Amino acid sequence: MQIEPIGKQGDFFETIRWFPSERKLMEIEKYLSTSDFAEEYIYVSKSALPGRYRNNNNPPLIGIMNISDRKGVFKKTKFKVTVKGVQQGVTLAEQIVTARKAEKSSQSALVAMETQQKVGRTNEHRFQPLLRDSPRLADLISNNPDDTSKFNIVLKNNFNFIFGWSGSRSTLSSDPCEHLQIDEVDQWKSVVNLEDLKDRLSTYDETGTASIFSTPGLDGGPIIQEFNACDAQMDFHVECPDCGEIQIMHFEHFIWPFTEQIAKADDAEKMRIANTIEREKLARYACDGCGVLWDDHKRNKAVRLGTNHFFHGWKMRKEIVLP
């Protein structure tokens, strides 16, 4: 900083000239939702669509990420539970949520999965590349090789990623954490310590958050129980490109060819037919409003149109009544 006098001698006015580094520190950073942050700063190398993250590639994830911002009606959200399908991108979305928290905090996050092998594999092949490939996050990676290991990542700002797994009480219920990322709980060998795991947020009563997500297994599994215990429940809605009907997609509306052949086929033949349907993209979805059959292109368009409604396509099953 330099102070230079201006005007005539005896004047009381002076001009202050700030150095570029000082101006940068005092700049008011524009607010970005987590989904906007993802588009602007996140690069994904381990993906079917590598490169800069694009919300339009998977629109339902916009709302899933932005609920974590705790704005508006979601400002007091502590536990977020997502019942998801297979390979829907939710894990990547939650990794972005956790990575953004790391950029702004000097606390800790626990990433918990079903097995020790998956923890090590995900850390090495997903989490570390996400940090390394995104320039804004890469600047936080420590130069000390001891700070990045198979089960732990310590950033320059002292934020600590802790990786734990089902059945390991020592990794799930020791030190307090400001954020929990709890992955695929319906595949956990043991969920008896899930409540103990949540208690790790108790130190951060005001700022602590948790994301719990899984593909459901048997009815009544942990993820369904967690979802049913939520104060508010939401469903994603799509909009028919033909009739404009806004609707929730239901499994019963999916239509597959070769149903008669499948009924008579043995297991090997059923697998062959299923592979053909998937490879040729022969499945269709019947609109709840007009009955028009959507192919993959129309289904994707319906999903994108849905984000124009409610909270990026997500709507409360019933309105929240605040005390």
SSE topology:
Blueprint: E1 2-5, E2 14-17, H1 20-26, H2 34-41, E3 43-44, E4 51-52, H3 60-66, E5 79-83, H4 90-104, E6 108-113, H5 116-133, H6 135-138, E7 148-149, E8 152-154, E9 160-165, H7 169-172, E10 179-183, H8 194-198, E11 209-214, H9 222-228, E12 234-236, E13 238-239, E14 246-247, E15 254-255, H10 259-264, H11 267-280, E16 284-286, E17 293-294, H12 296-306, E18 314-316
Parallel strand pairs: 5-11, 6-9, 6-10, 10-11
Antiparallel strand pairs: 1-2, 3-4, 7-8, 8-9, 12-18, 13-14, 15-16, 16-17
Helix pairs in contact: 3-4, 4-5
Task: Briefly summarize what is shown.
This protein has 323 residues and is α/β, with parallel strands linked by helices. The chain contains twelve helices and 18 strands. The model has no long low-confidence stretch (mean pLDDT 87).
Please characterize this protein's 3D structure.
The chain has helices spanning 20-26, 34-41, 60-66, 90-104, 116-133, 135-138, 169-172, 194-198, 222-228, 259-264, 267-280, 296-306; strands at 2-5, 14-17, 43-44, 51-52, 79-83, 108-113, 148-149, 152-154, 160-165, 179-183, 209-214, 234-236, 238-239, 246-247, 254-255, 284-286, 293-294, 314-316. The strands form 6 sheets. A 7-stranded mixed β-sheet has the order 5-11-10-6-9-8-7, sandwiched between helices. The protein has a 3-stranded antiparallel β-sheet with strand order 15-16-17. Strands 1-2 form a two-stranded antiparallel ribbon. It contains 12 helices and 18 strands.
